[in-house]
Structures
1.
Amino acid sequence: MDRKYYIHHLLIGCVYLITVSIAWAYSGDAFYESHWLVAFMVLSTLLYPCARYFVQASAYRVTGPTFWTRGYFVEDVNSPSLRALFSVLCILLAIPLGMAYLLFRLVRKG
């Protein structure tokens, strides 16, 4: 994962964070009073690019990149609903997958 990839997906994660925060505040719920929830949301946003990269790299390693460019995936891989589902999955699993990816990188360098 390079810096450009991380920054690009960090900005996307920030858009998700801002959208959820506005929607939550608009509903009248004072989510910001829970420090644990705010910390979870910010940490998930920071680790979102790592989790996304980990999932993509794992999928390519198991199946190979050509698997995703033929058959069923040619038409449906770029659908907005599939991309939204993938992003939600990565945001929900950002902390465990992001930490696993960072630990993997640290162990690999050492």
2.
Amino acid sequence: MCINFWFHMYGSTIGTLTVYLVTGATNTTLWSLSGDHGDQWFNGQTGYSSVTPFTVSFDSIVSSPS
């Protein structure tokens, strides 16, 4: 399977965007990116497989200004 998504990561306080495959109590990182990538939208894509029920979770962390 494949998940396709758009993301925008701009500014000095941008932290990390992570996509997880959640099966039961297990979180498996599918994709992760950190830092400033400019004032534009990007297309992200990742593949995964699962034979059990699952959830796809997006987690974003914003860093504090220095």
